[in-house]
Automatic annotation (TrEMBL), chains A, B:
PROSITE patterns according to UniProt: AA_TRNA_LIGASE_II
Native source organism of the sequence: Autumnicola lenta
Gene3D superfamilies associated with the record: Bira Bifunctional Protein, Domain 2, GAD-like domain, Nucleic acid-binding proteins
Family: Belongs to the class-II aminoacyl-tRNA synthetase family. Type 1 subfamily.
UniProt keyword annotations, A-Z: Aminoacyl-tRNA synthetase, ATP-binding, Cytoplasm, Ligase, Nucleotide-binding, Protein biosynthesis
Biological classification of the source: Bacteria, Pseudomonadati, Bacteroidota, Flavobacteriia, Flavobacteriales
UniProt name for this protein: Aspartate--tRNA ligase
Length: 582, 582
């Protein structure tokens, strides 16, 4: 053992004791006759002191040679500090060192190992092992562990069994691209890495496992958008003999437990909203309901008043920005520029200032009377002092654009408090979604999702209108979980594959095992999967997942620390029966 | 919710209650006027009853149409059984069904879903989802979950942090073969799946994480021996600022906890043995010490007595088989045949019967006097009534052969009680092992293992003699864990790569990131990894891991249920910049 204590636990109750510590040199103050060293380990920082009067000459010399991030072991006496530091648990004491053992030296690190670092993203990733020494990163990894333990213990106590499903499975062209693994033993054949354990968890339900969960890595070979990783972690869950209501209750319980235990936040019943309502009210299927600015449909009030721009459009829709009537023209122009950026793609914004004195001033005063505008204010819920912003155009696009603006304003106005938590169930997702590119319907959730019984007839006439037994759990504007009640009979499942454009052979080849399984007594079942990286990040009060992952990949899917992926030996390729096509 | 209770919990305290159950039809006894159904779910079996007098005609008809493995939902009244079954918790009651809802039908399953099944291995694997419905398989998966939860909670409470390390890493030709993953975004380059998170856990130590663990899938593309899987699970652990003794204590604690909590077995200090001692005493680095038959070196006693066969050999070694003096000639010949099989490869066996009456009879009476043989008896610890078996030859081979015989006899004589647990630390493994094929030394553990300080000088003169700070935890004749104190400085690590035949460029290309990390203040560290599949199997009283894995692969690395691996679309291959070489 290299230590009697950690660097985070010694205080005045240890006074006069001899202790042994090991750790990294965080900081050195060398006054010649006296040397102070901040010694750091995972648990905290303890101040060491060497001084001319009480330490040997050899020891003083050795202390003088220490550098940042050297690894040392010291023995010494716990003494009371003269100038105490009330900000850290060890701030009342220091260690008068009697023995110093340099366990390892260090080159000067490429960035400072402090709360705030001077290292840029690239450098931090290349030297991730140094970045992890920094409290913010280390604490996020420890936080992730804590959340994981709470999830496991909660589900385990609720009777769920964690079952490990295989990683070397079969590629199915449906959905995102698979990562594949060539088989050496089965010439010309490939495994695929799972995008999720979906079919296996359903087979476990057919196998009578009843309540399954797994915290598990999943893989998607997608072109990486910001804050996506090719490998990511899910809390994957499935239950048999349940209806949608049962799933919602159980996993609302899990989420409530996490919020309570980890954040100390008590939330009773989670609100619920249909997909249609979420789209109409927030233009978004994962609305952040920590703040208002709900959409108001202004079609009736704003059309046919002589303003051509609105008359031609499918949807005129507005929001009331609280307290923003005082925005200058310049500030409003900035918002207009913001929505015109290609990332949002709007044509512009109509604005109405509902001034504190009750007067109204707008960019469309030519076309609308004050009474008209007061009608808009009523519809959007604007009060005196608010700014009304209005967009118009094609329904889907305009909602998306106004939603982007709403979120932008939420951030700007500080309405998205990371320590406030507003969960929300979004229900009744569409079963299918039209894909312009391939000119056919895709499963919105996945092809195993069951349609609502009352909508099945619509499959023949209006497939886009069919609602699914599918639900998302949204937290602070992020989808943290999503699931569905599954199809559990062969007939419906093969009909679904048919709708999705699978030939009978394709369906059989790719999912024959599942449809076979459905013939041997498959129970009704359903489940949910949480994005663990995202859940942890949001509970940690952040929106980017990267720092909650020990060794993340960059946007090109590379691990810049180990420099992967990399070339293979020709010998290895041969064994795998492969040639490069370059 | 499809049920008010599970099939495992209803008893006489529920008498007269109306309950709702869902599950599978396990068994039907139809007497025409009365139908009994055993309804099964994950939690147990409850007997249902339909009878002419109390049930409607429609209900009787419906019950008559039920088949094995149909999924049903019933509502009914809990009544007291006339003939009780004391073997199951629900054996005092039955449910008088008032409503029957067939949730799904079932084809006749291809094998019986009972404790013992008539299905062969292949059939069971193809229909694994049906196999899992069987109690023995289902219970093993639930047992695995239980062990996993104990491991996680124990380590978490001991301050360990579970950190997820990446699955898409870099291929290193050292060790077993990697499974690789072609990168679409990085043309001509490949990721590798980890054989273990070894380098990442070491980097976490460099990163100050101090105590790390992870229950994690690992991958090895090996030609599969019986009971090996291409993907397997490890409990992977690493600690900083520790010496070997610290690791042994902590993980002895974990193992003791598991034995106590899961098996109710109390074991105080685990015995320890050096590798050299284990090889000399048991011919095996993972001896089963639940039984004796320790090896006795008979070189002094058996050589130079005129028996040529022994005189020429490097080692003459014997064991005493308890109570086996009564073996017939036929039984002994069977043992001789057994050791001559190519799997063992011995030339033969010399035997000595130490009869109950004290007389001695051997296959080498021509060469050895009774006094000589009494000497052998003393050396092997044989008592009157025992049988002494002796082998001779090259030291390493002969030990391995006699060890195989010892284990065989242990099984035959019922000395390997699966409910008895005998853990053992084996210490001081050799650092290097000579490989005949490549004519060079390989790392016995892995290239990151540190040599014992006192043996470093031997690296120059006698590398095969250098001992490592490496240790295995053995349980009942199986290695369940192994680890080492690692090298933590760049100089030693690059010297080690040098010894192992790496050029400087190779070492830099493959492990440059690790040696770089060692330059920035790497702490002393070490760890251990447990084979989780094996550990669970042994705790479960079994030696084969397959049934403790939900969806195992066969010996050709195939998943016969989903039929993987499989061919890829030409389109997919193109995207991955690959051609088949067939």
């Amino acid at each position: 053992m290299y230590r009697s204590h950690t660097c985070g636990e010694i205080n005045l109750t240890n006074k006069d004791q001899e202790v042994q510590l090991s750790g990294w040199v965080q900081k050195i103050r060398n006054k010649g006759f006296m040397v102070w060293v901040d010694l750091r380990d995972r648990y905290g920082i303890t101040q060491l002191i060497f001084d001319e009067e009480r330490s040997s000459k050899g020891l003083m010399e050795k202390a003088g040679k220490l550098g940042r991030e050297f690894v040392i072991q010291v023995t010494g006496e716990v003494i009371e500090r003269e100038s105490k530091n009330p900000n850290i648990p060890t701030g009342e004491i220091e260690i008068l060192v009697s023995q110093l053992n340099i366990l390892n030296t260090s080159l000067t690190p490429p960035f400072t190992i402090e709360e705030e670092t001077d290292g840029g993203e690239d450098l931090r990733m290349k030297y991730r092992y140094l970045d992890i020494r920094r409290n913010p990163v280390k604490n996020k990894l420890m936080f992730r562990h804590k959340v994981g333990m709470h999830v496991r213990n909660y589900l385990s106590q609720a009777g769920f069994i964690e079952v490990e499903t295989p990683y070397l499975i079969k590629s199915t062209p449906e959905g995102a691209r698979d990562f594949v693994v060539p088989s050496r033993m089965n010439e010309g054949q490939f495994y695929a890495l799972p995008q999720s354990p979906q079919t296996f968890k359903q087979l476990l339900m057919v196998g009578g496992m009843d309540k399954y969960f797994q915290i598990v890595k999943c893989f998607r070979d997608e072109d990486l958008r910001a804050d996506r990783q090719p490998e990511f972690t899910q809390i994957d869950c499935e239950m048999a003999f349940v209806e949608q209501e049962d799933i919602l209750n159980i996993f609302e319980g899990l989420t409530r437990h996490l919020l309570k235990e980890i954040k100390g936040v008590d939330i009773s019943d989670f609100p619920r909203m249909t997909y249609a309502e979420a789209m109409a009210k927030y233009g978004n299927d994962k609305p952040d309901i920590r703040f208002g600015m709900e959409f108001a449909n202004l079609n009736k009030l704003a059309k046919d008043k002589g303003f051509n721009v609105f008359d031609q459009q499918e949807l005129v829709v507005g929001i009331a920005v609280p307290g923003a009537a005082s925005y200058t023209r310049k500030e409003i122009d900035k918002l207009i520029d913001w929505v015109k950026r290609p990332q949002v793609g709007a044509n512009g914004l109509v604005w109405v200032k509902y001034n504190e004195d009750g007067s109204l001033k707008s960019s469309v005063d030519k076309f609308y009377s004050s009474e008209d505008l007061l009608g808009w204010a009523k519809e959007t819920g604007a009060k005196a002092g608010d700014l009304i912003l209005v967009m118009a155009g094609d329904t889907t696009k305009t909602r998306t654009q106004l939603s982007a603006l709403r979120m932008h304003l939420g951030n700007e106005l500080g309405l998205r408090n990371p320590e406030e938590f507003a969960p929300l169930w979004v229900l009744d997702f569409p079963l299918l979604e039209w894909d312009e590119e391939t000119q056919r319907y895709h499963a919105m959730h996945h092809p195993f999702t069951s349609p609502k019984k009352e909508d099945i007839a619509l499959l023949e006439t209006n497939p886009g209108e069919v609602r699914a037994n599918a639900y998302d759990l949204v937290l602070n504007g992020n989808e943290i979980g999503g699931g569905s009640i599954r199809i559990h009979d062969k007939k419906t499942q093969s009909r679904m594959f048919d709708y999705l454009g699978f030939t009978e052979e394709e369906a059989k080849e790719q999912f024959g095992f599942l449809m076979d399984a459905f013939q041997y007594g498959a129970p009704p079942h359903g489940g949910i999967a949480f994005g663990f990286d995202r859940l942890v990040a949001i509970l940690g009060g952040q929106e980017t997942i990267r720092d909650f992952i020990a060794f993340p990949k960059n946007n090109a899917g590379r691990d810049v620390m180990i420099d992967a992926p990399a070339k293979l030996d020709e010998e290895q390729l041969k064994e795998l029966h492969l040639k490069l096509r370059l």
